[in-house]
Amino acid sequence: MSLSVIPTKPAVLVRGLVRRYGERTVIDGLDLAIAHGEFVALLGESGCGKTTLLRALSGLDPIDGGSVKAPRRPAVVFQEHRLLPWDSLWRNVSLGLPADGARDRAAAALAEVGLGDRLDDWPRNLSGGQAQRVALARALVQQPELLLLDEPFAALDALTRLRMHALVKELIARHRPGVLLVTHDVDEAVALADRVLLMRDGAIAYERRLSSAASPQSVREELLAELGVAPPPRAPAFTSPSSHSVV
Amino acid sequence: MTLADPQAIAAFDAASPAAARKPAPTPQSRAARSRQTGLLALSWVAPVLLLLVWEALCRSGYVAPQILPAPSKVALTAWKLASTGSLFHDLGVSLLRAATGFAIGGLIGFSLGVLVGFSPLAEAAIDRSVQMIRAVPFLAALPLTIIWFGVGEGQKMFLVSLGVVFPIYINTVLGIRQVDPKLLELARVQGLSGWTTIRRIILPGALPSILTGVRYALAVAWLALVVAETVGAQAGLGFLAMDAREFLRTDVIVLTIVIYALIGAGSDSIARLLERRLLRWHPNFGGSGR
């Protein structure tokens, strides 16, 4: 296989990926490249295989065909925080780090997510947003080349989600890992990503690079249209109820 | 004698720990607290009344001392036996038997449980046999243990160990099996080694269930000891009771029953203390939560 078509050496390179669950082919000949330090968002309807792709990249699931080249140990933040309830926050964050200086590194990572004063607290005393921040600290403390985010903000309330977006943006800018964010939230994708991919029928169906030139609103409408959702009317004053699109 | 199956209860208890534990304490108003104190006092009225009626019946001669001694007489006997030191000697012998039997049975049950919990091969090889032996009420093995070991210390420790093995075994297997698979996935993502995964995720996750097993095993250990000691012994609480039977000393017999009860309650509180200490992180146990 020739790799010469890819201009720079990417952090992730997926060629012709196939993944089946029994008879059903969930991912069917998917190609994907993520550059070092690039933030890619992956949109798609529920059950289109977004999470399956992420699990293949993380090495959690085997693949049935094609090739996946990814850093040996990407960091993952799941939809649930998956903190160990029996360990203090710093012990949670340092899970998998060498024991030497683990507490100091965990402390620094927790300080970055605004929980520097809660080192010895238990996970059960955290709110949903705080727990997800600890999960983010646990992922970043590994200094990963690739960070995989599997709808990490989906269970949070709208306000907390916005705060998380700002925090993630700041942390990613500082640590510069390659990022693949799986989400079903178009606004989230537009707010965070350098490039938005749309997955359909087990492959990448659409791609949109976000530049500062394009207005977020137009990109948003373009993506929604591509997802098969008509954007809501700008002036809904005299529209009949039947003409409303359900988002 | 009918025996509830402690293993089945233990398994059920571990399967739904939240249902079996009392909820975490919540801040109370002063009125609610004084009401609580009132209820606490009320709950002691009936036992004290019962004790007084018992005392009165014995003093008035309605109940002969050979049938049931007065509580005051039992207390006096306790004092006498304690001051000669013979009570503590017998108590010590019994405690040592229980502790040794518990340690041996617990170690075997835990080791087998870990083995079966982790290895499908070990489960195929061991589990069916263990379950079949478990189906036998272990006290039915008593006559056999007497033939094997006589009525010495070995027989008592064996019977206690036999009773302890199963609740510990079953709850250890159950606890390991119930560890959240999502946390095991996390272990792989974080690149933990097999041993670190066991130490940091599987054993802590199995601990609530294992401690439930310990609590039931403690109760079973005492039951086994009472039976073993009553059948034949040269020392210990059971010996004290059977010796007293020869002389119709019902006061001594009642005293041993009371001591057995106290030790049973005591060991249960130790187990609860252990739970509160080791499961501080658990919303249903520790008290330092929000």
From TrEMBL, chain A:
SUPFAM superfamilies: P-loop containing nucleoside triphosphate hydrolases (SSF52540)
InterPro entries in UniProt: AAA+_ATPase, ABC_transporter-like_ATP-bd, ABC_transporter-like_CS, ABC_transporter_ATP-bind, P-loop_NTPase
Keywords for the protein's UniProt record, in alphabetical order: ATP-binding, Cell membrane, Membrane, Nucleotide-binding, Translocase, Transport
GO molecular function: ATP binding; ATP hydrolysis activity
Highest taxon, organism lineage: Bacteria
Domain annotation ABC transporter: ranges: 12-226
Similarity comment text for this entry: Belongs to the ABC transporter superfamily.
Name of the featured protein: ABC transporter ATP-binding protein
Organism: Hansschlegelia quercus
